[in-house]
C-alpha cells in the first residue's frame, strides 16, 4: 500500500509542480520579451497612448486601441451570453422536466466543442451579411458580429456553470419559497438565483476571461485595424488578434515591432490572471455559506 | 363546548408515488383553531399526507393524488385553483429550519414583498408583529439586518414560523418542526403552538408521543398509508380503539 500511494502522491505532486513551472515560465517569457521593449518605449506612453501603429513607418505604441477592441468584443459577447445563458440555466432548473434537462445539457456542451475558426466564418459570412440588412453602414469586419457570435459560443459556459450553481442550492430553499406562495418565476429570481449568485458570478468571470482570450473568431470576423473606439460597427483589433498577426507575419525576430507582442501578451496575461483570481476568491469566500 | 367549524377536510384521498400506493383512502376532518397531530411509524405517509394540504407534492415526478381536500369547504385540487394562492392561505414549516440566505428582516417580509407590498413602514410593522407572534422579537430586534443563517437552529425555526405567519395564513402545517432542535428550543416551539392555536388551524407531524400529547387537541394515527384512528388526543392515548394504535403508543413497534 505504502509504495503505490507514494507513487501516486509523487505523480500528483509532479503534476502540480509542472503547472506552476509552466505558469512561471510563461511569466518569464513575457517579462524577458517585454523588458527590452519597455526600455525603448515608456510605460506611460504604452498604457495611455491611443494610437497603435508598430508596423507602420510612423510608429506609435499606445495599447489602448487594442484594449478597447478587446473590451468591445468581450462586452458584446457577455451582453449576449449572460441573459441567454442564465435564462437557459433557470429554465433547465426550474421548468424543464428531468428528461429534457438531460438531453439539453449535453447538446449545449457540444456548442463549446465547435472549433472557434468555424464560429469566425459563421460571423463573417452569415451574421455580418444578415446584420447588414438592418444596419447598412456595418462594415464587413466589425466588433458587433464577432461579439455576438462569441456570445453564442460562450453561452454553454455560463449556462452550464450557472446551472450547476443553481442546482447546488439546497432543495429546502426551493420548498421554502414554494411554501410561501412564490410562483416559479419568483422562486427562481428571488430565491434560487440570489442563493447561487456567487457561482453565477464566477461563471461570468470565467466567460469574460474566455472572451478576452478568444483569438481566431475575432481575427476572422472583427478585422485587424487597431482603432481607439467603442463603435461596434467598424473594424477593430483585439490584443490576441494583434499577437497572431505579428507572430504569423514577417516581422524580424528580436526587433522592436516583434517585442510588442510580448508587451501586449503581458497585458492580456494580467487581465486574465486577475479575472481568474477574482473568480477563485469569490468561490472561496462564499462557498460554505449554505449548509 | 361549542362546536367549531370544519376548516380542513380530506375525502377519499389516495396518493401514489409512481406505482407505490402511499396513502390509502383517507378521510379526516379538522376543526378550525385546533391542533391536530399526525403520528405513526416512519414511512407510514405522514409527511406525504401533510404536503397534500398545500399541494407541495405537485412537483414530485410521478406523484398522483385522487380525492378531495376541502379548505373552508372548497376543493383545493379543483382545476381553477391557483397553487401559489393556496399556499398563501396554508403556510408550512419544515423539519429542518430553512431560512433564506438573506437578513432576518428580509426573511420575514419575503412573503409580503412577493405579493407586491412595498410600503416600508407597513412592512416593518408586519415584520415586528410576525416576530412577536413567533416569540423571536426580543432576541432579534436589534439585529434585524443580520444574516438569518447566523441564528441558532431554534431561532432559525422560529424565524421560519414568523416568515410563514407574516402573510397571515389560516392554516399552518408543521412537519416535525422541533425534531432538529434541542429540548429548550423544542419547549419554546411547543409553547408557541399553544398560543398560535388561538388564531390558526395547525397540523403537526411528530414522532414524539409526549409532544403530541402536550400540544394537540386531536391525534391521527397512520399506519402503512392508512389512517387507522383519529380522535381526541386524550382518547388516543388512554383508550385507543384499534389494536395497532395501542401497540404503537405503548411502544410495541416503532
Ligand atoms: N419522493 C418520493 N418518491 C417515492 N416514494 C416516496 C417519496 N417520498 C416518500 N416516499 C415513500 O412514501 C412513503 C411515505 O413517506 P412519508 O415521507 O410520507 O413518510 P413519513 O410518515 O413522513 O415518514 P417519516 O416519519 O420517516 O418522516 C414511504 O414509504 C416513502 O418511502
Ligand atoms: Mg416525514
From TrEMBL, chain A:
<feature type="transmembrane region" description="Helical">
    <location>
        <begin position="63"/>
        <end position="86"/>
    </location>
</feature>
<keyword id="KW-1003">Cell membrane</keyword>
<comment type="similarity">
    <text>Belongs to the binding-protein-dependent transport system permease family. CysTW subfamily.</text>
</comment>
<dbReference type="InterPro" id="IPR035906">
    <property type="entry name" value="MetI-like_sf"/>
</dbReference>
<dbReference type="Pfam" id="PF00528">
    <property type="entry name" value="BPD_transp_1"/>
</dbReference>
<feature type="domain" description="ABC transmembrane type-1">
    <location>
        <begin position="67"/>
        <end position="279"/>
    </location>
</feature>
<feature type="transmembrane region" description="Helical">
    <location>
        <begin position="107"/>
        <end position="131"/>
    </location>
</feature>
<feature type="transmembrane region" description="Helical">
    <location>
        <begin position="12"/>
        <end position="31"/>
    </location>
</feature>
<comment type="function">
    <text>Part of the binding-protein-dependent transport system for phosphate; probably responsible for the translocation of the substrate across the membrane.</text>
</comment>
<keyword id="KW-0812">Transmembrane</keyword>
<dbReference type="InterPro" id="IPR000515">
    <property type="entry name" value="MetI-like"/>
</dbReference>
<keyword id="KW-0472">Membrane</keyword>
<keyword id="KW-0813">Transport</keyword>
<feature type="transmembrane region" description="Helical">
    <location>
        <begin position="261"/>
        <end position="282"/>
    </location>
</feature>
<keyword id="KW-1133">Transmembrane helix</keyword>
<dbReference type="InterPro" id="IPR011864">
    <property type="entry name" value="Phosphate_PstC"/>
</dbReference>
<feature type="transmembrane region" description="Helical">
    <location>
        <begin position="187"/>
        <end position="208"/>
    </location>
</feature>
<dbReference type="GO" id="GO:0005315">
    <property type="term" value="F:phosphate transmembrane transporter activity"/>
</dbReference>
<protein>
    <recommendedName>
        <fullName>Phosphate transport system permease protein</fullName>
    </recommendedName>
</protein>
<feature type="transmembrane region" description="Helical">
    <location>
        <begin position="143"/>
        <end position="166"/>
    </location>
</feature>
<keyword id="KW-0592">Phosphate transport</keyword>
<dbReference type="GO" id="GO:0005886">
    <property type="term" value="C:plasma membrane"/>
</dbReference>
From TrEMBL, chain B:
<dbReference type="InterPro" id="IPR005670">
    <property type="entry name" value="PstB-like"/>
</dbReference>
<protein>
    <submittedName>
        <fullName>Phosphate ABC transporter ATP-binding protein</fullName>
    </submittedName>
</protein>
<keyword id="KW-0472">Membrane</keyword>
<keyword id="KW-0813">Transport</keyword>
<dbReference type="GO" id="GO:0035435">
    <property type="term" value="P:phosphate ion transmembrane transport"/>
</dbReference>
<dbReference type="InterPro" id="IPR027417">
    <property type="entry name" value="P-loop_NTPase"/>
</dbReference>
<keyword id="KW-0067">ATP-binding</keyword>
<comment type="function">
    <text>Part of the ABC transporter complex PstSACB involved in phosphate import. Responsible for energy coupling to the transport system.</text>
</comment>
<feature type="domain" description="ABC transporter">
    <location>
        <begin position="8"/>
        <end position="249"/>
    </location>
</feature>
<dbReference type="GO" id="GO:0016887">
    <property type="term" value="F:ATP hydrolysis activity"/>
</dbReference>
<dbReference type="InterPro" id="IPR003439">
    <property type="entry name" value="ABC_transporter-like_ATP-bd"/>
</dbReference>
<dbReference type="GO" id="GO:0005524">
    <property type="term" value="F:ATP binding"/>
</dbReference>
<dbReference type="GO" id="GO:0005315">
    <property type="term" value="F:phosphate transmembrane transporter activity"/>
</dbReference>
<keyword id="KW-0547">Nucleotide-binding</keyword>
<dbReference type="GO" id="GO:0005886">
    <property type="term" value="C:plasma membrane"/>
</dbReference>
<keyword id="KW-1003">Cell membrane</keyword>
<dbReference type="Pfam" id="PF00005">
    <property type="entry name" value="ABC_tran"/>
</dbReference>
<dbReference type="InterPro" id="IPR017871">
    <property type="entry name" value="ABC_transporter-like_CS"/>
</dbReference>
<keyword id="KW-0592">Phosphate transport</keyword>
<keyword id="KW-1278">Translocase</keyword>
<dbReference type="InterPro" id="IPR003593">
    <property type="entry name" value="AAA+_ATPase"/>
</dbReference>
Amino acid at each position: 500500500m505504502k509504495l503505490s500511494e507514494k507513487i501516486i502522491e509523487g505523480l500528483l505532486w509532479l503534476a502540480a509542480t509542472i503547472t506552476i513551472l509552466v505558469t512561471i515560465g510563461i511569466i518569464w517569457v513575457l517579462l524577458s520579451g517585454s523588458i527590452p521593449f519597455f526600455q525603448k518605449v515608456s510605460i506611460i506612453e504604452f498604457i495611455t497612448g491611443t494610437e497603435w501603429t508598430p508596423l507602420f513607418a510612423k510608429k506609435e505604441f499606445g495599447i489602448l486601441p487594442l484594449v478597447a477592441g478587446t473590451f468591445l468584443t468581450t462586452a458584446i459577447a457577455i451582453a449576449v451570453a449572460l441573459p441567454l445563458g442564465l435564462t437557459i440555466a433557470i429554465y433547465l432548473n426550474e421548468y424543464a422536466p428531468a428528461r429534457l434537462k438531460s438531453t439539453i445539457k449535453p447538446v449545449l456542451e457540444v456548442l463549446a466543442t465547435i472549433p472557434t475558426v468555424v464560429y469566425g466564418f459563421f460571423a463573417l459570412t452569415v451574421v455580418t451579411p444578415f446584420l447588414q440588412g438592418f444596419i447598412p453602414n456595418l462594415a464587413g469586419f466589425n466588433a458587433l458580429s464577432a461579439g455576438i457570435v462569441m456570445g453564442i459560443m460562450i453561452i454553454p459556459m455560463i449556462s452550464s456553470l450557472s446551472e450547476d450553481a443553481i442546482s447546488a442550492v439546497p432543495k429546502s430553499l426551493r420548498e421554502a419559497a414554494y411554501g410561501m406562495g412564490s410562483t416559479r418565476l419568483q422562486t427562481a429570481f428571488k430565491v434560487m438565483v440570489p442563493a447561487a449568485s456567487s457561482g453565477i458570478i464566477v461563471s461570468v468571470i470565467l466567460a469574460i476571461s474566455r472572451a478576452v482570450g478568444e483569438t481566431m473568431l475575432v481575427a476572422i470576423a472583427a478585422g485587424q485595424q487597431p482603432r481607439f473606439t467603442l463603435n461596434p460597427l467598424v473594424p477593430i483589433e483585439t490584443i490576441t488578434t494583434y499577437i497572431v498577426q505579428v507572430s504569423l507575419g514577417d516581422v524580424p525576430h528580436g526587433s522592436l515591432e516583434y517585442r510588442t507582442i510580448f508587451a501586449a501578451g503581458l497585458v492580456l496575461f494580467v487581465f486574465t490572471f486577475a479575472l481568474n483570481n477574482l473568480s477563485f476568491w469569490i468561490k472561496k469566500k462564499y462557498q460554505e455559506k449554505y449548509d | 363546548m361549542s362546536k367549531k367549524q370544519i376548516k380542513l377536510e380530506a375525502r377519499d384521498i389516495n396518493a401514489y408515488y409512481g406505482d407505490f400506493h402511499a396513502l390509502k383512502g383517507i378521510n379526516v376532518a379538522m376543526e378550525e383553531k385546533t391542533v391536530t397531530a399526525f403520528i405513526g411509524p416512519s414511512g407510514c405517509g405522514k409527511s406525504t399526507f401533510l404536503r397534500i394540504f398545500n399541494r407541495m407534492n405537485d412537483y414530485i415526478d410521478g406523484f398522483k393524488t385522487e380525492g378531495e381536500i376541502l379548505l373552508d369547504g372548497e376543493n383545493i385540487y379543483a382545476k381553477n385553483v391557483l397553487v401559489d394562492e393556496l399556499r398563501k392561505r396554508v403556510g408550512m414549516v419544515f423539519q429542518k429550519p430553512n431560512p433564506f440566505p438573506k437578513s432576518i428582516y428580509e426573511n420575514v417580509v419575503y412573503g409580503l414583498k412577493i405579493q407586491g407590498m412595498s410600503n416600508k413602514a407597513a412592512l416593518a410593522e408586519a415584520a415586528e408583529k410576525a416576530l412577536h407572534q413567533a416569540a423571536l422579537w426580543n432576541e432579534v430586534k436589534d439585529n434585524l439586518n443580520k444574516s438569518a443563517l447566523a441564528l441558532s437552529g431554534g431561532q432559525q425555526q422560529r424565524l421560519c414560523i414568523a416568515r410563514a405567519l407574516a402573510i397571515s395564513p389560516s392554516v399552518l402545517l408543521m412537519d416535525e418542526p422541533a425534531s432538529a432542535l434541542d429540548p429548550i428550543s423544542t419547549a419554546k416551539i411547543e409553547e408557541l403552538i399553544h398560543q398560535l392555536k388561538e388564531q390558526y388551524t395547525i397540523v403537526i407531524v411528530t414522532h414524539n408521543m409526549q409532544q403530541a400529547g402536550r400540544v394537540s387537541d386531536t391525534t391521527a394515527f397512520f399506519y402503512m398509508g392508512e389512517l387507522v384512528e383519529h380522535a381526541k388526543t386524550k382518547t388516543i392515548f388512554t383508550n385507543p380503539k384499534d389494536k395497532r394504535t395501542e401497540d404503537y403508543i405503548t411502544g410495541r413497534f416503532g
